[in-house]
Amino acid sequence: MSLNLIEEKEEVLHKKLEPIKEITPEIKELISEMKETMVENDGVGLAANQVGRDLQLFIIDEELAQESGVPSVYINTEITDESNDDAFLEEGCLSIPGYFKEVKRSKKIRIKGLDENGKKFKMKATGFLARVLQHENDHLNGILIKDK
After folding, report:
1. CB-based contacts of 147: which residues, under 8 Å, 6+ apart?
2. pLDDT tens for residues 4-16?
3. Active-site position among 63, 67, 116, 136
4. Does residue 134 fall inside a structural domain?
5. Is 88 in contact with 104 (CB distance < 8 Å)?
6. Structural domain of residue 43, as residue ranges?
7. Sign of the CA dihedral running 60, 136, 109, 32
8. Of the four, 27, 30, 32, 130, which is 20 to 30 A from 3 by CA?
């Protein structure tokens, strides 16, 4: 079942989200529904608050995750390091339909968090993957591309 996307006026998009304490069957179901919703809306990432949930959770495109050898599900993430080497690229957001903006992001990051099974991970990301992870991680902190 696909979920309804919410748009920028909703308060949950503008606040720091609540950490997930336990990966419950409900969380796994939400992840599955988010994946379906992201694909149906041609997204490369989707955060829980974009479907109205106050949870530190986001997903990225399965193909991008597989190509990069990284998880597709990110829980309670934290970007622990960013390079000073930045790049501008136009970004859009499923919560702001039709809006695009040049956004400056680090070309390389380190990120840590939990995967969908609650297993801890730390990883480096570069290029497009790093950009997607930074965009989605911003959502967990209530930051939209219009705020950049």
Report:
1. none
2. 999 999 999 999 9
3. 136
4. yes
5. yes
6. 11-147
7. negative
8. 130
Note whether residue 5 is domain-resident: no
Candidates 109, 106, 77, 64; CA nearest to 89 is 106
Residue 131 lies in a domain: yes
Average pLDDT score over residue span 95-105: 97
Query: Where would I find the H helices in the chain?
Result: 25-40, 62-68, 127-140
Residue 90 annotated among the catalytic residues of the structure? no
Q: What is the CATH number of the domain that holds 72?
A: 3.90.45.10
How many folded domains does the chain comprise?
1
Contacts of 107 (CB under 8 A, 6+ apart): 83, 85, 86, 87, 126, 127, 130
Amino acid, res. 40: E
- pLDDT tens for each residue of 12-68: 999 999 999 999 999 999 999 999 999 999 999 999 999 999 999 999 999 999 999
